Amino acid sequence: MSNVQRSIVLDVHALAGAYFAPISLQLGAGEMLCLFGASGSGKSQFLRALVDLELHQGAVFLQDVEQQQMLANLWRRKVAYLPAESGWWAVRVGQHFATQPSSDALASLGLEEAILAREVDGISSGERQRLGLLRLLVQRPQVILLDEPSANLDPDSTLKMEQVIRAYLHEAQAAAIWVSHDPLQRERIADRSMEMPLMQREGAA
Amino acid sequence: MNLIELTALDLGLAALLVVILGGLVALSGLGLTRSLYVSSLRMVLQLLLIGVVLEALFRLNNPWLVLLMGLVMLAVAGWEVVARQKRRLRGGWGYGIGLVAMALPAFSLTVFSLVLLIGVQPWYTPQYAIPLLGMVLGNTMTGIGLGFNRLTMGAAASRREIEAQLLLGYDMRQASRKLRQESLHTAMVPTINMLTVAGIVSLPGMMTGQILAGTSPIEAVKYQILLMFLITSATGFGTMLAIELGTRRLFDERQRLRLDRLQDAK
Fold first, then answer.
1. N or C: which end of chain A has fewer CB within 10 A?
2. Percentage of chain A exceeding pLDDT 90
3. Which residue from A55, A77, A86 is facing B164, i.e. has the nearest CB?
4. What is the pLDDT of residues A92-149, one digit of tens each?
5. Distance (Å, rounded) from C-alpha B180 to C-alpha B35?
6. Could you give the C-alpha distances from A53 to A19, B127, B217, in angstroms and in order?
7. Does residue A204 surpass a pLDDT of 50?
8. Measured between CB atoms, does B158 come within 8 Å of chain A?
């Protein structure tokens, strides 16, 4: 854990949903929290509640503004979520970008500019994951929630992605939650790690 | 102007055709005979019943009875719309939205054409009002049934695509644009096909009926054109309304896609 005093970017108060136990946590500027835990423990549901895509109780503050006080679509631009499998609704890759990414940004993830003209159906799942990340980052979010973003990547691309996200957090003073099942990866990238709390069974003592 | 009356024997011989068809299907083991016979029998009973009802309605010429008849037709049409949904909106929303989306354009456009276009006196004259409403309602029902089914099925099937857009900060209108577009197209295709082939491939039923009854073809054609415009606009307005209301129900005030508001697939 770093000793530097950081300004709080994301403040989560007893956030609870139907499929995960209540969670409270704070994320500072530039901070990366790695989240792990058994599948079915509700990691994705937790991240979906943070972007307000899922019904939930509790409160989430982004730099002192509560989630419900902000328009939902505006909130999702600032608190951005990259699901394990991102969705693509148009035919070609480039049509999914609000702002076209620079060739430098593409190259930093090992992608070539020509990929923007290709059809989504024709690219690999690893390429889709990297493009899904770029698509989020061009909107300059203040918090990024990453659901196993490097699951389909080779070791070299995984390291590149880690560097890109680290650099972004530093440069934008943003914060991140990264779901990762790989202890070595957590050691490389995490400022802090957290295991997903177990859901208390209703009626259990 | 005299219509040749059909005898029971004529109808019996026509029915014999279906009986032969059923026998042939049964022999070939394709197993459709039962539902063929049952729905044929249903058709005969329903039409005989409506014949009796219409005879009474025409004789009494009472506006309230005409309205009651219209409401019964609407309720049945609403039920048909719901029956065609593979994934209905829970809590009666599917039925309610279908009913409202059908009733508003079907009733208002039928009354509009009775009063302002046809100008029959009194405007609720059942010989005009009932067939007109029936044809408008029937087509609107088909359109809304198809469009609404496409909307709810499509929302469930393309959840990932829709949520991807919500996650990038698009609002529900943008995120559902493609879905709404596809739903409207699905709903309108039968109507547009009908307009395209009218008079070439098929002679529309009402026109055929009028010609058989001795009306001059040109007069029958004018009525048919009126009816076509009426059907097209009622189907279009109704479907757009159903898609609008359905979309609002599929998303909530925080622009979440609420598939939990749909029943499980049957």
1. C
2. 88
3. A86
4. 999 999 889 999 999 999 999 999 999 999 999 999 999 999 999 999 999 999 999 9
5. 35
6. 14, 54, 60
7. no
8. yes
Written as six digits, the tokens of B50 are 């409506």
Question: Distance between CA A187 and CA A31 in Å, rounded?
Answer: 14
ipTM comes to 0.91
User: Could you tell me what percentage of chain B is helix, strand and coil, using 3-state DSSP and rounding each to the nearest 5?
Assistant: 75, 0, 20
Beta-carbon contacts of A73 under 8 Å, excluding residues fewer than 6 positions away, are B166, B169, B170, B171, B255
Residues 6 or more apart whose CB falls under 8 angstroms from that of A87 comprise B160, B161, B162, B163, B164, B165
> Chain A within 8 Å of B219 (Cβ-Cβ)?
no
> What is the enclosing helix (H) or strand (E) of B241?
helix B217-250
Instruction: Let me know how long chain B is.
Output: 266
* Of the candidates B204, B166, B149, the residue with the CA atom closest to the CA atom of residue A76: B166
Is the CB of residue B42 less than 8 Å away from at least one CB of chain A? no
Tokens at residue B187, please? 């709903």
Mean pLDDT score across all residues of chain B: 92
Q: How far apart are CA B40 and CA B21, in angstroms?
A: 12
Q: Which residue of A has its CA nearest to B177?
A: A89
- Mean pLDDT along residues B201-216: 86
Count CB pairs under 8 A between chains A and B.
Answer: 56
Contact B151, B86 (CB under 8 A): no
Residue type present at position A135 = R
- Closest-CA residue in chain A for B251? A53
Closest to A117 in 3D by CA, of A89, A91, A93, A90: A93
Alpha-carbon span B236 to B140, nearest angstrom: 8
Q: Where are the domains of chain A?
A: 8-195
Residue of B160, B167, B254 to mutate, testing the A interface (most A Cβ within 10 Å of its Cβ): B167
Domain A8-195 carries which CATH code?
A: 3.40.50.300
